[in-house]
Amino acid sequence: MRTEQPTPLADVRETAAATAVAHPNIALIKYWGKSDEKLFLPRTDSLSMTLSVFPTATRVRLAPDAEQDTVVFNGLPATGEAERRIVAFLDLVRERAGRPVRAVVDTENTVPTGAGLASSASGFAALAVAASAAYGLGLDARGLSRLARRGSGSASRSIFGGFAVWHAGTPDAGPEEADARSYAEPVDAAGLDPALVVAVVNAGPKEVSSRTAMRRTMDTSPLYEPWAESSKADLADMRAALKRADLEAVGEIAERNALGMHATMLAARPAVRYMSPASLTVIDSVLQLRRDGVPAYVTMDAGPNVKVLCRRVDTDRVASVVREAAAGGSVHVAVPGPGARLLDEGV
Ligand code: PMV
Q1: Do residues 48 and 166 make contact, with C-beta atoms less than 8 angstroms apart?
Q2: Angle at 29 between CA 282 and CA 342, to 5 degrees
Q3: Which of 59, 82, 158, 164 is the most exposed place for a label (fewest CB within 10 A)?
Q4: pLDDT below 70 — which residues of the chain?
Q5: 319, 335 Cβ separation under 8 angstroms
Q6: Is residue 122 lining ligand 1, measured as CB closer than 6 Å?
Q7: Phi, then psi, of 308 in degrees rounded to 5
Q8: Residue 98 Cα, ligand 1 centroid: separation in angstroms?
Q9: Domains of the chain as residue ranges with CATH
């Protein structure tokens, strides 16, 4: 918790503004299920790789004369749920800063939104960094990760580049303590030279939001608790595999953790199914690559798109096989990318 006094309103620079950029991350150990929906506290720890592609750039400019926030998304005014979530996030920042001043938020997002490609991760990581600077919160990386978490859980991990683990914290410890202890931090994976081949088989928005699907899974799926339990062992195994730079083990653990998460959803009532026939075709092509001796492993999030983890040296071969399988879809290659950062600050 910040202890310094907030800057008095009179000291707010009329044109205080900041721009930040952040990249999405893909979880190798998934976050699926909240222990506290309001505070975005996850039920389990998760671990991800921040990508080198699909950046989001967000500018926050304070607007002292405005009565409302203005939110612009890819050049168009944001509406509905997207706008509501951003304004709620700004309210949180204002409350912490002790500054009721409204803002103009301008976001350029290059991720296909709502397609299980973590656009909310890069989006809220960039917003956390830009808003924290514009409102003068003066947060360090851990504080930014905790703040970003309140916009979208997975955003807590996009504050960091490379690999990051997000701690569930202490959900039973009471809200303040639990909030303080749930943040992401970097994980060393020196020596691993991975790539992630992203097959976008459907760039449209998903039918069931991850928030709704998580809730339903936790409330109704008999497979949820066993998965959450086994995810602890997966994380321990994953940390060890990253430490010894063992890409095959990293891939195997990531694949079983992700398919297990999707199994919990298939067992929910009613079932949530993000996999489409096109996803399965891509998954089959990856299994064939493996039979042909190329270490390649799948992971999937809250959408039909498939991400394939492989060695960087195998990228061309994997991308060409996946491109053929994802007929009509687009294929993107990512390597570990940078953490969120401020581009400029001031007027
Ligand atoms: O984007 P969020 O914070 O609603 O969470 C989505 C969770 C998954 O992408 C499915 C898994 C993960 O850990 O990112």
Answers
A1: yes
A2: 100
A3: 82
A4: 1-15, 112-118, 203-205, 346-347
A5: no
A6: no
A7: -115, 120
A8: 30
A9: 6-189 (3.30.230.10), 194-334 (3.30.70.890)
